[in-house]
Design brief:
19% strand; 145 residues; single chain; 6 strands; six-stranded antiparallel β-sheet; globular; 4 helices
Length: 145
């Protein structure tokens, strides 16, 4: 996936905006103008070195983050981020585009799930996701025989 393809995919997600709070050349993608779910760094498209591919930081469930790091050498602990909750993904062509797209969606849903209820429900509905169960696991009424 090229940096431009990544940007296009990120901006297609509901209520996503792009800003540069860390300075030029490091666009941040936020959901509902509140919380970041991706940061794109480096690469020729971002004003970086032509010989170094761009990298994207994506939020990730800690267990899945470890699995992805084992599966793909281009996926490493998040650069300048919480190493437990963020992965850095080198956009060098070694991770399939559909896998990067799934990582992007996963990051978006994780972050959107932590928005205020009204914002969370709105953006997840636009994405076609169910909001997290407010009652927690095991609170559903038992089926009657």
């Amino acid at each position: 996936m090229t940096p431009q393809q990544f940007i296009d995919a990120a901006l297609e997600l509901p209520e996503t905006d792009e800003c540069e709070p860390f300075g030029p050349g490091a666009p941040v993608y936020r959901v509902a103008g509140q919380h970041m779910f991706a940061v794109l760094m480096g690469g020729a498209d971002q004003g970086g070195d032509d010989d170094v591919p761009a990298t994207v930081n994506l939020k990730c469930d800690p267990g899945l983050a470890l699995e992805l790091r084992k599966q793909y050498p281009a996926v490493t602990p998040g650069y300048h981020m919480s190493k437990r909750h963020w992965n850095s993904v080198l956009l060098d062509g070694t991770v399939p585009d559909d896998e990067i797209a799934e990582m992007l969606r996963h990051s978006y849903v994780l972050v959107a799930s932590n928005l205020r209820r009204v914002d969370r429900d709105r953006v997840l509905a636009k994405l076609g996701e169910e909001p997290p169960d407010a009652g927690g696991a095991g609170t559903a009424a038992p089926e009657k025989a």
